[in-house]
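Appendix B. One record, verbatim.
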Amino acid sequence: MSMQKWSELYSNLESSTPFLAEQLVQLDNSEVPVPLALIKGYQFIGANTAALEYFESIEQNFVHSTPYDFSPRLQSSGRSSVDYGQQKLREALKGNIVSFNWLHLSQQGTELPTKITLYPFKLNDEDVVLIQFVPMDRRVKRRSQASNGFEMLPKQLMSITLEDSAEAVYITDKDHRILAVNKAMCRICGYSADNILTKTPHELNLDNLNHNSLPRRSLNNNGNWQGEVWKYRSDGSKFPAWQSCRRIYADNQVYFVNLFSDISEKKKLEERLMQQAMFDKLTGLPNRFHLTKILNKAIDEIKHHPSMIGALMFLDLNGFKNINDSFGHSTGDKVLQLVAARLETCCLEDAEIARLGGDEFTLVLPKCVNIQEIEAFSEGVLSLFDVPFEIDGQKFYLGTSIGISMFPHQSHEANQLLSMADTAMYSAKKSPNHIRFYNTAIKEAAEKKLLILNDLRHAQSLGQFRLVYQQIIDLENNKMVAAEALLRWQRSNGTILEANEFIPLLEENGSMVGVGMWALEQACAQMRLWHKQYNEDLKITVNMSTSQLEHPDFLIMLNKVLDKTQFPSDKLVIEMEESALFRKPALMSALLNELKKLNIDIAIDDFGAGVSSLGRLGTLPIDNLKIDSSFVHRLNEPQGEELCRALIQLAHTLNIRFIAEGIETQAQKILLSKMGKGFGQGYYFGWPATADVFAAESLSQLKITQEVAIHDTVCG
């Protein structure tokens, strides 16, 4: 940060403890610059140049951040950086000097083992903590030097060196009248030496420093000062400069040696770096780091307006992944730019917009009268997506889900508000209007999900997954033709979850492929055993998720399972969701053809429940359509019966077998059997059961039926 601002903060520190007052002087007069920073609450409010260099940061990134923003999540002791850091700061705020070892991280990710000392002070009657950072890594410690050799050189050589220095130099007397200048001083400021000598910088309008300015006071009191100033050329133009001043006593006279350099290019570079650090390169919007600054400012300002509320909206684009997958990232980037432009055009006057990354955007509404105003604004944002985004004649339809957290009553912390809005956004994806305000129910659901996710990571290694089996019956002769393997998870507390309760979470944590192939192997091995014991014509049906089917090594893994279990491929039925066919149509068409080469049957699960493409369906090698149970449950309604009849006729027209799911009564079974030849599955024929129970209740009966049939044939 600018030395001037840090000096103002540092010079205003106060303490009634003599030791602390003396410590301030010692730290300020240290020959080697000591990294120092000030904290109010739990946030940095300032730091000297040494601290910024130590953390490889800049003022804009450092101020308003916290000590644990520059720390790993856990310290080497295993303690949370946030909890441990806040505990130590609270100790210091009680008036104690606190020292401890700490592992920091620079902004570039470099580990910084550090000894921390916290000093309690007052700043404008408010409690603050001065932090001293002492590197513990010997590699970053500087060697002290007894002599730099300059005192051994001839004075004439020193004079020539100063005269030809690229840095501007001018020397003044005790009244600040200029006694000597070098060439760089004349070149940079546009004066000749004659025009400068015997005049004061103030008379020449070289700078805006006067006798009461902080640099002059520091120079008179401490004998030295350095910092950033504005300088003026002879034509009146101004430029930023870095200046250092030092008071020197020689021959019973007082002199002030001033050196400065034009830092215009450096400032331009800093601006470019800040632009890169604070703004998203693709859209030009503020990025995540900048958002934190915006949010902190809004939180501070709303404290002065207690009747107002602020809102943070977290937007996630619905359908964007399909655009990236189908048209490539280049098109996806153009869509994101169009979304950013539309948000800016329609919302800029009322909200601060930022892009966090990917397809995630945020809007900060700093001052709202009530929740109704926030709701109306969010509905307006949703309406922005009613019109498609057009690129090169191609129209792209997107939606968005919006999660909302509010300040200050839900939180005063920017990161916590962002987390709340993010959690609400995921809940909004499942809500009818795609808008959700963060509340206790959402928090509890998120905590429950997190708990399940944590347990799910270890479920396979703990052997908590198992398969249950349900028979599939020929509606014409009531014979079992296949069994479907269904995945279950028995948690440590004994609770048994069905697949639809945890499969999406397996997809989310990336475990679905591994668990899915385990289930396939178990099912094939079990049916291979039943072939030997009961009936070798039975088929096994196994569900495959979209992520499994799209895995580049799916066919390799499938063949390994078939070889390992010695299971005949013509007795395997792979079930897939209807949506899997249309997400990546070319890939899926090629995969289905490869499966048919292996004589594997293909079934489409929950047919009719989603969006169907009948034209596409007729071109794919599909063997079975599983009619969704919702249609079977409506057979007692005239319209429901007609829908089932139409689906069955469609299957027959396409020469595809149908399997009616969810049959629970004899009346449903009889009615479906009259509609055409096909198969049925549901509680009417048997509940899903473990392998032992399924064998005892279903397969043993099948064996008895077969033995009776053989006996009748022989006797006949």
